[in-house]
Amino acid sequence: MASSTPAQARWAAFARDTNETKIQIALNLDGGAFPPETDPRLLGGSDHASQSSKSQTISINTGIGFLDHMLHALSKHGGWSLAIACKGDLHIDDHHTAEDVCIALGSAFHQALGIPAGIKRFGYAYAPLDEALSRAVVDISNRPHASIDLGLKREKIGDLSCEMIPHCMESFAQAARITLHVDCLKGFNDHHRAESAFKALAIAIREAISKVAGKEGEVPSTKGTLSV
């Protein structure tokens, strides 16, 4: 397990094993390389949710294709390097896998960010996808809360239950200890509604955790702390 201080790389890598899911994860909030202790089995994947560039490495395999697609969008537009592998009890349903992956991602985010000093703290974004438009507002608050309204009407998108899509965001927010509000404002295609929401969330988080020149070491809170 790895965590960071503001002067170090903002990254984390660990395994999360339960009777329901076995997860390996590595995250670098600023893109680039993964921590040295990253499980080598996470790297070199050829899944559809894999992408490598000079600034980012993304490899996601949860066993649920649409969840992979959403986490790919979140990491790509958030500017992260992210690798996730999960073996879950999909013979039951998608719930444990989707929930546990997002808990693991939130935990990795919280560890990687470390002490929330020298950052903007707040971020917001709008993101369209064709006819759909979503808004996300984020507070790196250490006060876990999620308010999600995506207006999804289908039972499933691919193999991911639509009821799990807001729950994934809620699970991430709880483990990351952040406040987020995500709303899909318009759109008739549920795939577009969900994807625009994840893209808006990615951009809002990227803004909220961005470093502010001249504010190094300063905690953006009137309390003087965001750790309690």
Automatic annotation (TrEMBL):
Gene Ontology biological process: L-histidine biosynthetic process
Coiled coil: none
EC number: 4.2.1.19
Pathway: Amino-acid biosynthesis; L-histidine biosynthesis; L-histidine from 5-phospho-alpha-D-ribose 1-diphosphate: step 6/9
SUPFAM superfamilies noted in UniProt: Ribosomal protein S5 domain 2-like
Keyword set includes Membrane: no
One Pfam family in the UniProt entry: IGPD
UniProt keywords, alphabetically: Amino-acid biosynthesis, Histidine biosynthesis, Lyase
Entry-linked InterPro entries: IGPD_sf, ImidazoleglycerolP_deHydtase, ImidazoleglycerP_deHydtase_CS, Ribosomal_Su5_D2-typ_SF
Catalytic function, reaction form: D-erythro-1-(imidazol-4-yl)glycerol 3-phosphate = 3-(imidazol-4-yl)-2-oxopropyl phosphate + H2O
Region (Disordered): 30-54
Molecular function in Gene Ontology: imidazoleglycerol-phosphate dehydratase activity
Family listed: Belongs to the imidazoleglycerol-phosphate dehydratase family.
Protein name per UniProt: Imidazoleglycerol-phosphate dehydratase
Species this chain originates from: Cladorrhinum samala
Upper taxonomic lineage: Eukaryota, Fungi, Dikarya, Ascomycota, Pezizomycotina
